[in-house]
């Protein structure tokens, strides 16, 4: 079973993401973090197959978390999808240039979510 690290400061959003996987009948287990610092700790303690990452969080922004993770050789090919309300083109470009596998703008529909998840080797 695949393990997904869901990083978002909103517990409601983390639950929405988990429920979406359930609705789409994608079997997986979840690890959660409410900020980038906690996410780094979770990542170092638990093997994961995918990270779903918000941009705006306390302690460590999602984009900074992304850059730190990509700088670690062990996570070079780990799929990381930004799931954020940051819709400005320059944010999308920065995330993709920093190593995001894909980018989803909130609010997330099941259709978009399934398309993005299906497009990666997960």
Strand content bin: 15-25%
- Within CATH, the superfamily carries the name Response regulator
Quick one: biggest sheet?
Answer: 5 strands, parallel
Overall mean confidence score, pLDDT? 92
Low-confidence runs of at least 5 consecutive residues: none
Helix content estimate:
40-55%
- Rg value: 13 Å
Name the strands of the widest sheet in spatial order: 2-1-3-4-5
Shape: globular
Output the helix-strand order: EHEHEHEHEH
Quaternary structure annotation: single chain
Question: How many helices in DSSP terms?
Answer: 5
Give a count of the beta strands, DSSP E runs of length 2 or more: 5
Characterization of the model:
The chain is α/β, with parallel strands linked by helices and 122 residues long. It has a single domain, classed as Response regulator (Rossmann fold, 3-Layer(aba) Sandwich), CATH 3.40.50.2300. It is built from five helices and five strands; from the N terminus they run βαβαβαβαβα. A five-stranded parallel beta sheet has the order 2-1-3-4-5, with helices on both faces. β1, α1 and β2 form a beta-alpha-beta unit. The protein starts with a strand and ends with a helix. The mean pLDDT is 92.
Which features characterize this protein?
globular, Rossmann fold, single chain, alpha/beta, 5 strands
Secondary structure topology:
Layout lengths: L1 E6 L3 H13 L4 E6 L2 H10 L4 E4 L8 H10 L8 E5 L4 H9 L4 E4 L4 H9 L4
Parallel strand pairs: 1-2, 1-3, 3-4, 4-5
Outline:
The protein is α/β, with parallel strands linked by helices.
